[in-house]
Design brief:
single chain; two-stranded antiparallel sheet; 13 helices; about 300 residues; alpha/beta; seven-stranded mixed sheet; binds S-adenosylmethionine
Length: about 300
């Protein structure tokens, strides 16, 4: 008789429990062992290295991470999968250790404070961590925005997201995908699309392609020197400014209630001494550093609110 593949075994065991995947929770499981292994091997990992995984599901990525000896701190919202994973791990005989927390990673659209508390309990920020995850599509944007804005961002990440989301996260100024999410995340991380991934490697198959991304935290950038509430305010500023992305910058800033800022941007005396022509640009022509400079001048120096 032909031997059962890892995926067939998983399907059978989940089936015996009457489990059927929830599309609402983005339960598209990765079944390509080569891809799983290559994600787990993205960064060098040792026994004391902390890896955070969001949505371990039945543990397809967790397992190669544990086999590499990592200490994995995982957050899963689905109690059924968490119970299944706990049972599975005990039979794997792997070197690493798993700390599994049943938790919704988001609370009211933002990173759940309990998630950050668990990270602190695990020794962060004294101990840097990597985040490795096949992110559920419904939470990927707020999770990555939250990690960029929080006080304890990961040192690096390797994650799968929907292809369109990957393009937005890695977009360059002037491109059609360039917008608030990518600018905010790129302020904290260098984002790279490593690979386009076909729906074929998931079960059930999603409708769209995915992107495998790596994100490396930038060192000594002004954005990471801001306080958490200031980073969050930068996110709000970007969302509001890009809500009227077709307007020239001077008009966009006026709609934001930041009209006072406009003359100071071009003022060489105590202002930013920007060239006048830039005020006529659409915000999407400005790079992240310019948008951050603009925000910091208005929010921090002039006390404008957003
Ligand atoms: N890591 C597994 C894999 O690669 O096959 C599963 C990935 S599956 C795309 C997403 C996982 O995230 C599911 O297990 C789902 O239950 C979990 N999930 C969905 N929403 C979540 C949330 N808000 N908080 C925590 N986990 C969540």
């Amino acid at each position: 008789m032909k031997e059962e593949s890892a995926f067939q075994r998983l399907k059978r065991k989940l089936g015996e429990r009457g489990f059927s995947p929830s599309s609402l929770l983005g339960q598209n499981f990765l079944v390509d062992t080569n891809l799983l292994r290559s994600i787990a091997e993205t960064f060098p990992l040792g026994p004391s290295d902390l890896v955070v995984e969001i949505g371990p599901g039945p543990g397809s990525l967790t397992r190669p991470l544990l086999e590499r000896g990592a200490r994995v701190l995982a957050f899963e919202v689905d109690q059924r999968l968490a119970a299944f994973l706990e049972e599975e791990v005990s039979s794997w005989g792997v070197e690493g250790s798993l700390d599994l927390v049943v938790l919704d990673i988001l609370q009211r659209g933002k990173l759940n404070p309990l998630f950050l508390e668990k990270l602190r309990e695990a020794g962060v920020p004294g101990r840097p961590y990597a985040l490795m995850s096949n992110l559920p599509y419904s939470v990927a944007g707020p999770v990555l925005a939250g990690l960029a804005s929080c006080e304890i961002p990961p040192a690096r990440m390797a994650c799968l997201v929907q292809w369109e989301m990957g393009r937005r996260l890695a977009a360059a100024p002037g491109s059609k995908d360039y917008g608030p999410l990518g600018i905010l995340v790129q302020a904290a991380f260098e984002v790279r699309i490593q690979k386009r991934v076909s729906p074929e490697v998931f079960r059930p198959r999603p409708k769209v392609d995915s992107a495998l991304l790596t994100l490396e935290r930038r060192e000594a950038v002004p954005f990471l020197g801001l306080e958490e509430r200031e980073r969050e305010a930068f996110g709000r500023f970007l969302r509001r400014l890009f809500a009227s992305r077709r307007k020239a910058l001077r008009n966009g800033l006026k709609s934001l209630g930041w009209a006072d800022l406009v003359p100071k941007l071009v003022d060489p005396d105590g202002g930013l001494a920007w060239p006048e022509a830039r005020l006529g640009w659409r915000p999407e022509r400005l790079c992240g550093e310019e948008l951050l400079e603009l925000f910091c001048f208005g929010f921090l120096e002039l006390g404008l609110d957003v």
